[in-house]
Amino acid sequence: MTAVTRSFDDAWRRWIAENLMLDAPSSALHGALVGHGFDAADATREIDAALASPYFHGATRLRNRLRKREWILSVYGELNRMRAASAVVERRERLSRDAFFEQYYFLNRPVIITGAFDVWPARSRWNWDYFRERCGDREVEVQFGRDSDANYEINQPRLRRMMRFADYVDLVEQSGPTDDFYMTANNTSHNRAALAALWPDVPSIDEYLDAASPDTGFFWMGPAGTKTPFHHDLTNNFMAQVIGRKQIKLVPLSDTPYMANHLHCYSQVDGAAIDYDSFPSMRQAQLIECTLAPGELLFLPIGWWHYVEGLDASVTMTFTNFLRGNEFSRHYDTYHEL
After folding, report:
1. All domains of the chain, ordered by start, with CATH?
2. In Å, how far from its chain's centre is CA 175?
């Protein structure tokens, strides 16, 4: 009986073009195609057609322009590594406004600031009983089912569930380590109003933030074991740790080419246990780790990749309303691509 060979469609032609753009040898592509059931002569013809196409030649020129930009980023990265203490996140006590913006914000460098929000009522008031007393009957939005969805961050709109805040507080307080449920910034559109009684406890950090901004911060709360996968933000961010500790892994903006960025601002790399065999380019990325303790404020520069894991049941406030420009996302138009 004669075997039926497969026919090429545009999906397979795109696969050929993408791999050729990644410098895969024609012979390797040919072998893979034959292994997937394509006729050898047909595979040769399709590969040769791709290589001869003026569209492919145009795409090659664009690829080379992008490679030059990657080279420029790599130069910036190498120069940054030459700086003393570039492999650690510095800790600065009550950093002045000018020092913060000149030495970190404008230079796209992370820093942990201590003593910046010691005066917050939240530092002494916030605990599980206080939350139940102040907002226990309010209905809040939480993400559930994260453990059963490998793409929980991308699919987070599907994981939303409404519940009484007191019930969620009970769940966080009584559970062991888990990432199955988490209240994050993605839930803030509803929760900012539901938890309005808590906001006076976290007044603006006027040394760095614009108190007149309508953006009054984002509330994060979850048990030990919560994870935020490797991604980069489209703004500069502050993480103010109120309860519990979080471990953060950072990779500089300049190392973006090594991060297996497959969609929007997300990476395919698992920050919990980096698989260097599957993602060998990660060996070239500078990985910086720090632990954020209660009372500490982490500056996360725009574009820096970060993975966050809760070491304890934790509550975090994040802010983007800096006193200097932070509207970089207005030029970002690849939400559904890279």
Report:
1. 10-72 (no CATH), 86-331 (2.60.120.650)
2. 25
Under 8 Å CB-to-CB from 42, ≥6 apart: which residues?
A: 5, 8
Q: What is the pTM of this model?
A: 0.90
pLDDT recorded at residue 5? 73
How does pLDDT run across 50-95, given as a tens digit for each residue? Answer: 999 999 999 999 999 999 999 999 999 999 999 999 999 999 999 9
Q: Judge whether 299 and 104 are in contact, CB under 8 Å.
A: yes
What whole-number distance in Å separates Cα of residue 316 and Cα of residue 185? 10
**Token pair belonging to 155:** 């699919």
Q: What is the mean pLDDT of the segment spanning 149-175?
A: 94
Q: What is the mean pLDDT of residues 108-118?
A: 98
Residue type for position 225? G
- The Cα 42–Cα 33 span in angstroms is 9
> For 205-245, what is the HEC assignment?
CCCCECCCCCCCCEEEEECCCCEEEEECCCCCEEEEEEECC
Q: Number of C-alpha atoms within 13 angstroms, CB side, residue 116?
A: 29
Residue 41 has pLDDT above 60, yes or no: yes
The answer on pLDDT for 188 being more than 90 is: no
| pLDDT number for residue 3 | 58
Task: Tally helices (H) and strands (E) across the chain.
Answer: 9, 15
Q: In what order do the strands lie in the sheet with 181-182?
A: 160-164, 139-144, 181-182
pLDDT above 90 for 335: no
Distance of alpha carbon 290 from alpha carbon 213, whole angstroms: 30
The pair of structure tokens assigned to 25 is 């040898």
Rounded to an integer, what is the distance from CA 270 to the centroid of its chain?
11
Task: Indicate if the alpha-carbon torsion angle 191, 155, 224, 246 is positive or negative.
Answer: negative
Residues 140/189, Cβ–Cβ less than 8 Å: no
The label of the residue with tokens 């570039």 reads 86
